[in-house]
Amino acid sequence: MSRGMSRRSVLAGTAAAAAVATGPLTATAARAATTAAAAPTLPNGTSLDKVLVIGMDGVRHDRIAAAKAPNLKSLTANGTYGTSLLYANPMAATSSGPGWSTISTGVWPDKHGVKDNSFTGKNYTAYPGFLARLAQVRPELSTYAAVDWKPLDTQGTVTAGADAKLVLDGDADGYIGHDATIAAQSESILRNQNPDVLFVYFGQSDIVGHNQGARSQAYLDVIDVQDGYVGRLLAAIKDRPSYASERWTVVVATDHGHLDAGGHGGSAIEERRTFVLAQGPGIAAGARPIDTRLVDVAATVFKQLGIAPEASWGLDGKPVQERSTDPFDALQSSLSGRVDERGIPAGVLGFTHSAPSGWSVINSAMGTGGTTEWRGWSFATDEFWSRTQRDQSRELNVRARGVFAVADSDEWADKSFSGTYDSTLVTPAYAVGGKATVKLDFTTFYRQEGSQSARILASWNGGTPVAVASYTSDVISQPQSLSLHVPAGATSVSFRFHYTGSNNWYWVVDGVKISSS
């Protein structure tokens, strides 16, 4: 269950649980459960750019690969498919409230405020869901939402702003029949009406994950059933009389993963697994980016509708087809597996000491020994680094993407060492001749402890580095911007990230950009 949350806490006694327990769930049986209720009527659409977002609750992406799932696999082959990991507490639990809030709003829980399934602290006024945002900026669009986990409606997470909605109660009635109803009515709307943007949610996958585990045949079966629903929706789109003149984007995403034995809410890698799959105009076929995050769904919807988000929206996401220009991501092909770490599976490739072209790491003052992977600034992925030790807040590195730079004196000190952790990450030199100011932008995640230090230094024309900024308290994965006046006669500048510690915490740097004006 979801770590004490109210959702689906009595499922063992519900009709849904009983139905799952009877054996594999077939698409035919699920379709037979469809109710006869009429589909809601939408206003006539106004856009040739159209988006269908499909939510599959609690679906681990690695289990899609093990299922048949022909429609999801076709979308993957013909679209862009990015996997990533969620946060964990204390930012938020790996449960549905925070997960769907992140998908819908396009911001992380430290902004939208939903930490668990109580929805206490939600801030949808400042960070509305994408349908609510569309109602503000493009009210002429025809929008629809269908859900059978009721809080997504009652809390205003997903359905707010929709012109028409279908809200069913899977917790009370069982998700098998309601998922089938959602599929049938959404298919009808796609065939017989003219919607512009749809959000269609299926909840039974999470029920099976809880009750029978992510390694069960039943879990693969429910993925296949929902894959069948996806196929019906795709077929309905293609059968539209106006399909040839329309530009359709289909996005599929999940809110969290599941433990092998079932359940979520904690910090295990399996609970944190998410994916965003998208196919549509301008979205590359067969792409497997390492820089996609769950917040990217809303930004992708806006992009595909030709809407440029305003800075005041505070989105954390970016469209799935836009790649990061971060120099560290170029290291993906050189990442290797563990050396001294034993909590990381041998097959997980996720770290290197080799700096990107033009960058360097100075370890001349570094102590001896220690854990090899973290001896001086390293370059790592979220999965590799956060596996080193759970529940020390490494899971909160949400605004880093792909490969990032990390100095971790805590993990370095887990193996016998002497001296102090003292390492400097150096950027390439950047031309500033004739410019008045230079700006350093980056994302950082810093945890302060004891006498450790974290300084940023600037070196003008290759001269003696001068400290221009420092950290003395925690900064939990936030964008940073530092503007400096260019001294007279300076033609170049390079920046240094200097970290010292002794079995203290860590410093992460990512997305470094240098510009001048």
Layout of strands and helices, then pairs:
Elements: H1 15-21, H2 27-32, E1 49-56, H3 61-66, H4 70-77, E2 80-85, H5 96-105, H6 109-112, H7 130-137, E3 143-147, H8 151-154, E4 164-167, H9 170-173, H10 175-192, E5 197-202, H11 204-212, H12 217-238, E6 247-253, H13 269-272, E7 273-279, H14 296-304, E8 351-352, E9 360-362, E10 368-369, E11 378-381, H15 382-386, E12 403-408, H16 409-412, E13 417-418, E14 421-426, E15 430-431, E16 437-446, E17 453-460, E18 466-471, E19 475-485, E20 492-501, E21 506-516
Parallel strand pairs: 1-5, 1-6, 3-4, 3-5
Antiparallel strand pairs: 2-7, 6-7, 8-11, 9-14, 10-13, 11-12, 12-21, 14-20, 15-20, 16-19, 16-21, 17-18, 17-20
Helix pairs in contact: 1-11, 10-12, 11-12
Structural overview:
Pfam families: Phosphodiest (PF01663). This is Nucleotide pyrophosphatase. GO terms for molecular function: hydrolase activity. The chain is an alpha+beta fold and 517 residues long. It has two domains: 49-313, Alkaline Phosphatase, subunit A; 327-516, Jelly Rolls. 25% of the residues lie in helices and 24% in strands. The chain has helices spanning 15-21, 27-32, 61-66, 70-77, 96-105, 109-112, 130-137, 151-154, 170-173, 175-192, 204-212, 217-238, 269-272, 296-304, 382-386, 409-412, and strands at 49-56, 80-85, 143-147, 164-167, 197-202, 247-253, 273-279, 351-352, 360-362, 368-369, 378-381, 403-408, 417-418, 421-426, 430-431, 437-446, 453-460, 466-471, 475-485, 492-501, 506-516. The strands form four sheets. Strands 2-7-6-1-5-3-4 form a seven-stranded mixed β-sheet, with helices on both faces. A six-stranded antiparallel β-sheet has the order 8-11-12-21-16-19. Strands 9, 14, 15, 17, 18 and 20 form a six-stranded antiparallel β-sheet that branches. Helix 10 runs parallel beside helix 12 (217-238). It starts with 14 loop residues before the first helix and ends with a strand. The relative contact order is 0.13.
